[in-house]
Fold this sequence. Notes:
The chain is mainly β. It folds into 2 domains: 2-42, no CATH class; 50-118, Roll (SH3 type barrels), CATH 2.30.30. The protein has no helices and 13 strands. The strands form 2 sheets. Strands 1, 2, 3, 4, 5, 6, 7, 8, 9 and 10 form a 10-stranded antiparallel beta sheet that branches.
Amino acid sequence: xxxxxxxxxxxxxxxxxxxxxxxRSYELTDGYAFxxxxxxxxxxxxxxxxxxxxxxxxxxxxxxxxxxAVLDAGTEIYPVSxxxxxxxxxxxxxxTEGRITxxxxxxxxxxxxxxxxxxxxxxxxxx
Length: 127
């Protein structure tokens, strides 16, 4: 845990399209409540990227706006951040940024009605 002034960051594992190590920052408000600052930032030093095995519906960031797109099978996705409930932000090898949206059903992420296990070559879940 890192503490600085009225902010701190907590490092831990999160499960969303795999198990990832990273951190989340919090700010102490004037009302003495801890508010998260953005999503859980994923540490990609070491882990392999996710590799799609189907055409995957995503949103790509263009000129500050997310636009619907489809990634081809075989595309490598580098996770950047997640809220672990509805989305994962990612970066492609060429630097393009995007977002995968999902829902959770019975502890499984569903992407546009498809099981996460049907979308990626390997999902690095712990345990």
